[in-house]
Amino acid sequence: MKLYFQFMYILLFSIVGEFLSTGLNLPVPGSIIGMVLLFVALKLKWLRLRQIYDVGQFLIENMTILFLPAGVGIMSHWGAISKYWWQIIVIVVLAIVVNIAVIGFVTQFVKRRFEGDYKK
Question: Range of 28's domain?
Answer without folding.
Answer: 2-61
